[in-house]
Design brief:
The complex is a heterodimer of chains A (about 250) and B (about 290).
Chain A: E1 2-7, H1 11-21, E2 25-30, H2 37-48, E3 52-56, H3 61-72, E4 81-84, H4 90-95, E5 103-107, E6 117-122, H5 128-141, E7 144-147, H6 156-174, H7 178-189, H8 195-202, H9 204-218, H10 227-234
Parallel strand pairs in A: 1-2, 1-3, 3-4, 4-5, 6-7
Antiparallel strand pairs in A: 5-6
Chain B: E1 2-6, H1 10-19, E2 25-29, H2 33-53, H3 58-66, E3 68-71, E4 82-85, H4 91-104, E5 110-113, H5 120-124, E6 133-138, E7 147-152, H6 158-170, E8 174-179, H7 186-201, H8 207-216, H9 223-230, H10 232-245, H11 256-263, E9 276-277, E10 282-283
Parallel strand pairs in B: 1-2, 1-4, 2-3, 4-5, 5-6, 7-8
Antiparallel strand pairs in B: 6-7, 9-10
Helix pairs in contact in B: 1-2, 2-3, 7-9, 7-10, 9-10, 10-11
Chain lengths: ~250, ~290
């Protein structure tokens, strides 16, 4: 199958790798590179001949809207569009498109493993047949597709980003060092990794985008992003992918 | 070092077990003698088990079992260098215990409270020497987890903090010094984990689905299995305490489901069903 994958690291790299391992032909585009007209033209050409498209951009609702619209108008009408429902619900994302019936939401959170689970979420507008095709696609990649209700942030991104948000608030309030806080949470609640190291891995812009999506969706103060998180994003300290987030890294992904 | 532990419930027994290998003498006191003996039996069994597994050598295990003394009265804690209070988390009871300890125990000794829900500063206010009162917040379960939050009350002296930190290191755990704020570090972040999972129930999700997803994300226990393990009542009291102590800040509002389960006696842990039905090992429906 010809798969179009557009979005941000580390999500798209991992997905592209998994698709290639299943012998799909992958057209991969980083959302950052689409500012370049040549790259954008190539993405548009790739979209017209793709058989399934995956979007993963959650740094903000505005960026996501721009990207989803740009991909969708160029896809043949019966091609499923799998959208990452972190910064907005699948239903809202579908509402931005010409053919909302072919939009299906999903949720993945780094580190993404093949033996893992993908949260699978049809929008209110999604066609039944398209949803079934999307589910088969995920299962053939090796994921267990777990059906969850449609909402911004779904399950894992919502819980993990809330945990990260609280950890950032606590760090700001206590003046603890990044390493101290991460170690305390790992030892204290048996978290698989420190919340701040995890934020670096996901991308601070994605964590912020998810929290803002949750805040917009629920209108509840519990999702108000910690100010420090926003400050880090302003400063371009987005985590592993820029070599600097809460920690510093030798190698840069993007 | 002579350590006294006041209160021999689950938490006191686990702390006793955690300090057994590093103390010269551990005085265990509880107003209920049966509970005290039960706690000692439990600790001895754990020590024997560790020796049988080979994780603890024979000489050390024999020594560990000899360090314990059961005290029928609080007065027998007088010679302790450090008194750890682990009575049930009731403010009036804790203040009464501290008022008594303040008179009995030498001024050079440290008095520590293990409260998860009250402020160290409030408890210290019941004593004449609040400088020597500190919080020792053992992450649960205390005999396994390595982290101990050392809580600095408003009037706790630096010397007390330093000595409390040395004690935590001496028992092989990692200290983290934090100020006396609602929930400190671990409980605040933990309530974000369990609290957000509870909110997801309002979307119609089943506890078991949420647990499976979180366990697949690397957590050894999904949020609902964790709540059952810690005790639904414990988690409810803790979230309620954080909510009250933050003057009812909306993000910390406890979920009504916890209260319903507590009212129904479904408190989890080894005692009863919680979110999961223990007999059937199946989760309760989400709605």
């Amino acid at each position: 199958m010809r798969v179009l994958i557009v979005g941000e690291v580390p999500f798209v790299d991992t997905l592209a790798g998994l698709c290639r391992a299943r012998d799909h032909k992958v057209d991969l585009f980083l959302s950052d590179d689409l500012q370049d007209q040549d790259v954008l033209d190539r993405m548009v050409r790739a979209a017209t001949r793709s058989q399934i498209a995956i979007e993963s951009l959650n740094e903000s609702q505005a960026a996501k809207l721009w990207l989803v619209e740009g991909i969708e108008v160029n896809l043949p009408p019966d091609v499923p569009l799998l959208v990452s429902a972190l910064a907005a619900s699948a239903t809202e994302i579908a509402s931005w498109t010409e053919h909302p019936a072919r939009v299906v939401g999903y949720g993945l959170l780094p580190p993404i493993t093949v033996t893992g689970m993908v949260e699978f979420v049809p929008a209110l507008q999604t066609d039944f047949e398209i949803a079934a095709r999307a589910r088969r696609f995920w299962e053939e990649l090796g994921f267990e597709a777990v059906r969850v209700p449609d909402s911004a942030g779904l399950v894992r991104p919502r819980i993990v980003c809330s945990l990260i948000n609280e950890a950032v608030r606590v760090m700001t309030a206590t003046g603890l060092a990044v390493e101290e806080l991460d170690q305390a949470i790992q030892l204290g609640i048996n978290a698989p990794r420190g919340p701040l190291a995890w934020a670096d891995e996901i991308g601070l812009d994605v964590v912020l985008g998810t929290l803002e999506g949750l805040l917009r969706y629920w209108g509840h103060e519990r999702y108000r992003p910690a100010p420090l998180l926003r400050q880090k994003v302003y400063a371009g300290q987005l985590g592993k992918k820029t070599g600097h987030g809460f920690y510093k890294y030798e190698t840069v992904l993007a | 070092m002579h350590i006294a532990i006041v209160g021999a419930g689950t938490s006191g027994a686990r702390i006793a077990q955690a300090v057994a290998l590093s103390a010269d003498r551990v005085t265990l006191h509880d107003s209920d003698e049966a509970r005290m003996r039960q706690a000692l039996g439990r600790v001895s069994r754990e020590i024997d088990r560790a020796a049988a597994r080979g994780t603890l050598d024979r000489a050390r295990s024999r020594r560990a079992r000899r360090v314990f003394f059961l005290a029928e009265t609080l007065d027998e804690c007088a010679g302790a260098d450090l008194v750890i209070e682990a009575v049930s988390d009731d403010l009036e009871l804790k203040q009464t215990v501290f008022r008594a300890l303040d008179e009995i125990v030498a001024a050079s000794a440290i008095l520590a409270t293990t409260t998860h829900i009250h402020s160290v500063t409030t408890i210290a206010a019941a004593t004449c020497l609040p400088e020597r009162v500190v919080g020792l917040h053992f992450a649960r379960p205390a005999h396994i987890t390595r982290l101990v939050e050392v809580i600095r009350g408003v009037r706790t002296s630096q010397e007390t903090i330093d000595r409390a930190q040395s004690f935590v290191r001496a028992i092989g755990k990692t200290p983290l010094v934090v100020d006396d704020e609602p929930g400190q570090v671990v409980n605040r972040v933990a309530q974000a984990y369990t609290g957000e999972a509870l909110c997801l129930l309002d979307d119609g999700l089943e506890p078991a689905t949420i647990d499976r997803l979180m366990e697949a994300a690397g957590f050894p226990l999904g949020p609902f299995r964790l709540i059952d393990e810690l005790g639904v009542d414990t988690v409810f009291n803790l979230t309620r305490a954080i909510f009250e102590a933050t003057y009812y800040t909306a993000p910390y509002r406890p979920h009504p489901r916890l209260q319903r389960l507590v009212e129904a006696g479904r408190v989890g842990r080894d005692r009863a069903d919680g979110f999961y039905d223990r007999a059937a090992a199946a989760p309760l429906p989400g709605k």
